[in-house]
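4-hydroxy-2-oxoglutarate aldolase, mitochondrial
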Amino acid sequence: MAFVVNNLRPLCKLGALTVHQPAFGMGGVRVLACVHRGMASFKKIDLSGVFPPLPTPFNQDETINYEHLRNNVTKWNEIGFKGYVVQGSNGEYTYLSDTERVELVRTVKQAAAPGKLIIAGSGCESTQATIDMTCKMAEAGADVVMVITPFYFKGRMTSQAFKTHYEKVASASPVPVILYSVPANTGVDLPADVVVQLSQHPNIIGIKDSAGDVTKFGSMVQHTQASGFQVLAGSASFMLGTYTVGAVGCVAALANTLGKEVCQLHNLFKEGKMEEAMKLQHRLIAPNSAVTRKFGVPGLKVAMDWFGYYGGPTRLPLLPLSPEEVESMKADFQNNGFL
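Tokens:
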């Protein structure tokens, strides 16, 4: 990969990567280039394991309660998580200011046990904003960034648009990049062939895919494994299925409440105990669906309160669950032996 550096001044410098801003513009658009030493070494970062996507704890007035976050992380540190995802969809990142997003990453980094990998969601709608946020997340302590697909102009989010966006972000990022596709929220899907092409970029190390298409997972693994690219399941509901076709880890909302059980499923598969793994996977499907597809972040926060964590309220316009919804969700946990 060739990077053209000409007439540049430093924009941000973090670790092995120096990002520069040109002293000139092109059509009023800021153009970025980067110089990197040892970028290929990022492919060696091991993403195998379970990552909870941390919810953002709010007070009743919707301000962030950082003390509750630190307390939650202290409890999660006792579980065998590979690390934490901060500012994914479950973090309500779309409702937060840039300053809040960065401070949450900094707080989790400080509270996390040594060795925990911090993955920060740095995706924004524009490429430039994503690059800026990525630099800020790295400064706050993120080891890796996870970049959601831009989606507002859905009709123009073509394969080439995605490819250009991710290549520019990855080339300017001080830390490794994970692609993030969540069609249920964005209405757009990152095609497998685009993922394969992007896997060749030395600073793109994996993907979190929340769509649940096991065929797509298998295809992505088959065509990217030679480059060291890693595939992560985006839900505990289809975790075992994706593992059987080569996924190495999982980012699961359910891990915020049933972290030990989700990690147990990971370990059972690694140990080849497939019958036990299948039984546990079956039990996790309904509770996971309850805190994702059925009731979303408000449901997840209620479940966190049940299991000794601080869930608390969501930010408007997300509304709390009704009493009937709470009882329905409780049944999903009780019927599978978790309450």
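The radius of gyration is 20 Å.
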